[in-house]
Each structure stands twice: as structure tokens, then as C-alpha cells.
# Entry
Amino acid sequence: MLGIISGLIILFFSFYIMYIGVVADNNWIIFFALVLGIGSGVLIALSRLKQNIKTLDNYKASLKRLQEHPNDETLKEIAYNAGVYFYKNKRDNKIILPMDINAINRDIDQAIGNKTK
# Structure
């Protein structure tokens, strides 16, 4: 989250530098602002990717704990909530779809040893 916020701050700062470059009619300042803007976009994308990897790791860890203790209802709920959080964070609108619910339930069934098609 901090990477996304800092990336946005750098992006807005690059717009300001670009404005200064346009007013001063200096192409080097404009070029620097463009490079800074592209760098901030890369920072935002990498931060988002890192966040998605972390939620996926949490989801897989909860499924692994459920696999070790398949009769524990609390672990089933934790795995389900981790799956919902993972699938919500995959989308910009933070909406979970019915196919996501099916995928979560299928993962939970596989972790506890139920055979599903």
C-alpha cells in the first residue's frame, strides 16, 4: 500500500515538473518528467503485484493448514475468507463473482479430501 501511495505522489510530482518544463520551454525537463512518470507507473504496478502475491500466499497457507486438519470448521472459515479476500483483490472493482466462489469451494473440498468434478 505504501508503494502505491508513494507512486501516486511521484506521479503527481512528475506532472508538476512537466508543467515547469513546458512553461520554461525546456525539453530536458519535460523528458525528465516523462521518465519520472513512467518510473512511478512501474512502482505502482510492482507494488500491486507484490500485494497480490502476498494475498495468494496467505490463501495457499490457509488451505495447507486446512489440509493438515480437515475436520476443523474454523480453518475452513479462515480458508474461505482468505479465498474471498484473494479473489476480491484480483479485481479493481473488488467484486467477487460466482465463479470465484465456486473456485474457493473447490479448493476447500480438495484440501479436506472431498472428490469434486
Q: What stands out?
A: The CA atoms of residues 60 and 111 lie 10 Å apart. DSSP finds four helices and no strands in the chain. The helical segments are 2-24, 27-68, 73-89, 98-112.
